[in-house]
Amino acid sequence: MKEVYKSKVYTERPDYADYDAPEKFQAITGIIMTHLRQHPKAVCSYSGGSDSDIMIDLIETARKIVPSLPPVRYVFFNTGLEMKAIKDHVKETEGKYGVEIEEIRPKVGIVSAVRAYGVPFVSKIMSAGLSEWQKKGIPLSIAEEYGRAEDKAAKRRELKERYPNCESVINFLCCCNSAGEPRPNIQLVINSSKYMRDFIGEYPPDFQISAKCCDCCKKQVAHDVQKDYEMVITGERRAEGGMRSVPRKDNTALCFTETSSGQYRFRPLYYITDKDKDWYKKRFGLRYSDAYEVYGLTRTGCCGCPISHKAVEDLEKIRPYEPNVVKAAWNIFGKSYEYRAKYNMYKAGRLKAERERRKNVDGQMSMFDCLS
User: Fold this and answer.
1) Which of 58, 80, 163, 185 could be joined to 109 by an S-S link, Cβ 3.0–4.6 Å?
2) Which helix (H) or strand (E) holds 44?
3) Rounded percentage of the chain residues whose pLDDT exceeds 70
């Protein structure tokens, strides 16, 4: 049986991650109480999305149950490309819980960030990998060299010597780790998106790829706000995939960790599934923003961000209500939308060809079986 690689996010998950929704949320509420008691100076990022709605409800429920718990500072990071539905919902949420949700804008807006660094494509991981590949200029053919090598560890060492200071790019292109061990099924490699390496080789991008707009418009701004707080609360969920589903330097299980600076990171929703969210919304009668309830979106995040595979589809849902936002998104991210559509067509063609080839091979085998 083929061994399936599982990261620490899965193997070191807490017991409550496997509870049913009622018990899981009860456990999380208790955990929130404990951490707020132990780390009273806390700041929480509120995006106006469905995850944030559940998170703020859990926090304020905990504070209602235990009135002595300290207040939490809530902040909303406005990238400059936000739906009116989200901005209105932030104000509604303030009134609902009797809290202030402070709106903060970045020094470098999303348009300037994209012009300076590049446009996101497929995922943050893919964007980071392709951005480094574009900068370093390493040929895609190193993956073929690595694939043909009998001693993959030796080949990996040789590639490192040939291309110094390119560790992450080599691993990304060759779908391996730094020891030279194949890792074709993890999200940190180029073929985590099927046939991507072949597609990039046949149709090189004519634009700069990067996910640094996220750093400029959210991460750096958040860091400036959060640096003076003892505990930072965010609504990340493993089920969202991408970078949120792999271990990072400051954590393993991702629920509650201490950073090297002594600050604590608390992700109370990390092991909440979509099914859990549905249960909570119905049980406590939450109403999400009009982006969900009226426009029909299933996820918001950064409006129009190409990292979402449904970005173009979602923009069409938004268009009847907020056409100017849709126009702005196309002006900023259009090249990535078009390139992804081309990749999707390429992938579909390759998958179809593979199915036909397997079908023909199976048919030939059946014929020979009959003759034998």
Assistant:
1) 80
2) strand 42-45
3) 90
